[in-house]
Specification:
Layout lengths: L9 E4 L5 H13 L2 E6 L15 E5 L5 H15 L4 E4 L4 E3 L7 H34 L3 E6 L12 H20 L6 E8 L14 E3 L12 H9 L11 H13 L9 E4 L1 H20 L1 H5 L13
Parallel strand pairs: 1-2, 1-4, 2-3, 4-6, 5-8, 6-7, 7-9
Length: 305
């Protein structure tokens, strides 16, 4: 199902103040399409012109359903359509799972999961009820997950929980779409990216107070922090502008390939995810006899389609 996007196409992107979101926004703008850029503070969006008819800057709190609805309505009011949504806003929450404050944990899930869910619901409505009668194009939802939506690292449990939930919801919702709606879903799983997400004072990372029982120096979180704070670590991470170009090319179909369910970004993401899936497959094989012993025969999977 190839994309049919021309220069009048409208992209809405969350989390555009910096990092990947900023690179996505610049790539779309340079493409000549219309771009709706969002952030909690619109002053962080000054890298795009205020007076361009192809740019709409919106203050957006992704933890507020009302704010999300207003952003989508403002987009349709200005451009009359919405073609691509990129759910990008997010941040990391590091800490020992036993002691992370509940308020922090809930806010992480609100940001990584519920915000994208509400935006997906609004986007699908517009794709089906606004776009199709006027443009017959449907739309594309891009959910920026992470290699952390497949692999796990100790000390990062609530971030993983949010990304695992996002991936499961995205895949299931995609299966609900009727072919005639022409609505596509893409999950993106970046690994390390050379942005301010990890290791600057204004990073997209929050570190909860450590629990003394876990903070021994050789624990998973201490090792992770040691790695991310190392000056050598970013040398192997992905270039955000290259990630943005790959995403745009994938959505537009210029790669010559069909849109995948999941697009990994970065050598580390490919390596870690493959390793995790290989471990899972081996475990399934090792326990196949025991697993099948509790059922009377072969499974009927016809309902999956």
């Amino acid at each position: 199902m190839p994309a049919t996007l021309d220069s009048s196409a409208v992209w809405l992107i969350t989390g555009c103040s910096s990092g990947l979101g900023k690179s996505f926004a610049q790539a779309v703008y340079n493409l000549g399409h219309n771009v709706v850029v969002t952030a909690r503070n619109t002053s962080t969006l000054s890298y795009l012109p205020d007076d361009s008819p192809r740019v709409l800057k919106i203050k957006l709190d992704v933890t507020s359903k009302e704010s999300i609805i207003n952003a989508v309505n403002s987009t349709v009011e200005k451009y009359g359509r919405l073609d691509v949504v990129i759910n990008n806003a997010g941040y990391g929450l590091l800490g020992d799972s036993e002691s992370i404050p509940e308020e922090d944990a809930r806010m992480e899930i609100e940001t990584l999961f519920w915000g994208p869910v509400f935006l997906m619901q609004e986007a699908v409505r517009v794709f089906r009820e606004v776009n199709k009668p006027r443009h017959n194009v449907g739309g594309t939802i891009v959910n920026i997950s992470s290699m952390g939506g497949t692999i796990t690292v100790g000390g990062n449990a609530f971030y993983h929980a949010g990304k695992f939930a996002l991936e499961g919801f995205s895949k299931a919702m995609a299966q609900e779409m009727k072919p005639e709606w022409n609505i596509r879903f893409l999950l993106v799983g970046p690994g390390g990216v050379r942005t301010n997400f990890m290791n600057t004072p204004n990073s997209g990372l929050k570190l909860a107070p450590r629990h003394p029982a876990y903070n021994t120096g050789d624990d998973p979180l201490s090792l992770l922090l040691g790695y991310t704070n190392s000056p050598d670590a970013p040398k192997t991470w992905s270039d955000p502008d290259k990630c943005a170009r790959l995403l745009v090319d994938t959505v537009l179909g210029t790669t010559g390939k069909e849109l995948p369910r999941m697009l990994l970004m970065g050598a580390d993401s490919v390596q870690y995810v493959k390793l995790e899936l290989e471990k899972q497959l081996k475990e399934i094989e090792d326990w196949t006899v025991e697993s099948k012993s509790v059922s009377p025969g072969s499974a009927d999977l016809s309902f999956i389609g």
